[in-house]
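Record passed on underneath.
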Amino acid sequence: MAHIFVLDDVLDAAVLTQRILSKKGHQVTIFTDEQEAMQYVTKNQVDLAILDINLKKTNGLGVLEELRRADPKIRVIMLTGYPTIETARQALRLGATDYCVKPIDKSELEQKVSAALGN
């Protein structure tokens, strides 16, 4: 199974995502701080990142750009509670694999993670 990290400024949302994906056998590490998440990625092999667009210090699109520079092969799914066509387009243009709207739908998340991982 895959090594996934989740970055969300809302701890409960990150924990929910972790529970859903851990039940599928994935190793899931969660973060609420962008800097800690980026430090983790530089020191660990990660297959998939799940990033909230609205974060505490910056936004997920900025983190997405940093991730792509650090590891161009990493797959990324963006999450947002405030979906707009422009943010979806921008996320995909920056290299996101997919885009998911909050509140998280368990089946949709599982399906998008599976597709992103090529399963």
